[in-house]
Amino acid sequence: PIMIFEDATDETLVFLILMLLYYKSGAETIPDVIPSGGYPFMLVLYTIKCLVFPWKVRKPMWKAIFAVISSPLTAPTFFHTYIADVFTSMVKVFQDIWWTGCFIVSRDFMISENSSSDTLLTYKWATSFWYSNVVIPLICLFPLWIRFNQCLRRYMDTRKRFPNLANALKYALSQTVTLFGAFHPLYLMHKDHKYINDDFIMKEVDSGPSHVFDMFWFFLFVSSSLYSYFWDVYMDWGLGRRK
Question: Could you report the per-residue pLDDT of 148-177, keeping only the tens digit for each?
Fold first, then answer.
């Protein structure tokens, strides 16, 4: 516990110092030695260092994460299932990590905040088709896919259809809802007589309106929500079950 407290104190101090420097650099109250984005970049490097070193301490964590990701190939334990459940609540965190990676790889952090407003607003990768309609939905599917694979692996190991296959159905429905949510904007553009050509440019087309997609999307969303609610309350929490 003492080592955890010391690590948390060090990381908090580094975060506060670098964020203070970032704020001061943007407000032009300190010399512009490096671009303002250099301070968040140093924070990212420090975070990576803390996630890797000391390796003897971090090795079990990465080993467990690898076992979770490779769940179809390894038998999931309770600890692995717990980590995968935590991952399902970290979708926004994974999206932010990917955004940070693109921000650094594109070297946009080197752009000074004192540059023109047009330069600051040109994160082209953040508004690209592949980022918003391909990568982000895949990130949303990733934790659900892991839990789905774990449920199937549990069924293969135990040969018990219930609750393993029933639990896998819950995550399959959630994945389907996520896919429909990702493609829903594309459907709306098509319904409004618009489409994106090979150069990702909006074009007008002649398309008749249809409400089948909306009805199916609504039915799927409600079904998945009710199924997940029932499973969490009745099966996971045990509320309403006879003892």
Answer: 999 999 999 888 888 889 999 999 998 888
Q: How many CB atoms lie within 10 A of CB 31?
A: 8
- Element containing residue 186 per DSSP (H, E): helix 161-191
Interval 95-137: pLDDT, tens: 999 988 888 888 877 776 655 555 555 677 777 878 877 888 8
Tell me the DSSP string of 48-73: HHHHHSSHHHHHHHHHHHHHHHTTTT
Cβ atoms of 231 and 167 closer than 8 Å: yes
Strand partners, 194: 204
pLDDT band at 53 (very low <50, low <70, confident <90, very high): confident
The amino acid at 57 = V
3-class SS of residue 13: helix
Helix (H, G, I), strand (E, B), or coil: what is residue 203?
strand
Question: Measured at the alpha carbon of residue 62, what is the angle toward residues 75 and 98, in degrees to the nearest 5?
Answer: 110
Length of the chain counted residue by residue: 243
User: If phi over 0 gives left and psi between -120 and 50 gives alpha, with beta otherwise, what is residue 193?
Assistant: left
Residue 86's nearest CA partner among 70, 102, 64, 101 is: 64
Token output for 198? 């090979």
Query: CA 138 to CA 133: how far, in whole Å?
Result: 9
